[in-house]
Specification:
Layout: H1 3-11, E1 28-31, E2 34-37, E3 43-44, E4 47-48, H2 60-82, E5 88-99, H3 107-122, E6 129-135, E7 144-152
Parallel strand pairs: 5-6
Antiparallel strand pairs: 1-2, 2-7, 3-4, 5-7
Helix pairs in contact: 2-3
């Protein structure tokens, strides 16, 4: 068992199957030593966990948990290309999008769910740059979408 698999087991975290694309794209793509994931929605077992705007139909606390689900889906996409998450040498950047009610300004707090989970899993290799962007609407009326840029070794 690899180091990351052991860490996931210790944390009680299961990497899901790769979420099937909802349009014309692939879940992850590499170039050089970087892996880019497609935007990941909070799908669990093929179903969107929640819909609506954060700060209206979805609470900030719920959205924070949904960001964690998005990270797990992103790691599933990465694993499907790399074969093992142990090949990840650095989480470079996290781009997070939060479908926000007009008066909601807590996007960074929502994305902390994603960032903190990456830190728990990867330790110092999980420290990353990040964008936390409020948007009017996301695909399928998802509350949160997250994409990853990861560095990996051969």
């Amino acid at each position: 068992m690899g180091h990351i698999a052991a860490k996931l087991e210790e944390l009680g975290i299961h990497i899901p199957d790769v979420a099937k694309p909802v349009a014309s794209y692939v879940p992850a793509q590499t170039t050089g030593s970087l892996l880019y994931t497609a935007g990941q929605l909070p799908f669990v077992d093929g179903a969107l966990v929640a819909t609506g705007k954060v700060g209206a139909e979805v609470s900030a606390q719920e959205a924070t948990e949904l960001a964690r689900v998005c990270i797990l889906n992103g790691l599933a996409a990465a694993q499907s290309v790399l074969g093992s998450l142990d090949r990840i040498t650095q989480v470079v950047k996290v781009n997070g999008y939060v479908a926000s009610a007009p008066d909601f300004i807590g996007q960074p707090g929502v994305l902390n769910g994603a960032s903190e989970l990456l830190g728990q899993i990867f330790g110092d290799k999980g420290i990353h740059a990040r964008a936390a962007v409020g948007v009017a609407v996301l695909p399928l009326d998802a509350p949160v979408e997250v994409e990853l840029i990861l560095e990996f070794s051969s």
